[in-house]
Amino acid sequence: MPLLTANKVQAMTENISEIYVKGKWVTVPALDIDGKTIAVRGRWLKVAIVRSEEWLETELEDPDSCIKELKRKRPSGERADIFTFTQKLPATQPKYQYPMDWDSVAAIQISSFTAWWEKLPQATRKNVRRAEKRGVVITLREFDNDLIRGLAELNNDSPIRQGVRNVQYGKSLDQIKKDYSSFLDRSDLICAYFRTELIGFMKIVYRGEVASILNFLPKASHDDKRPANALVAKAVELCAAKGMSYLTYGMFNYGNKRDSPLREFKIRNGFGEILVPRFYVPLTGWGALCMKLQLHRGALGILPHRVITLGVAARAKWNKIKLFDKPV
Question: Model-level pTM?
Answer without folding.
Answer: 0.86
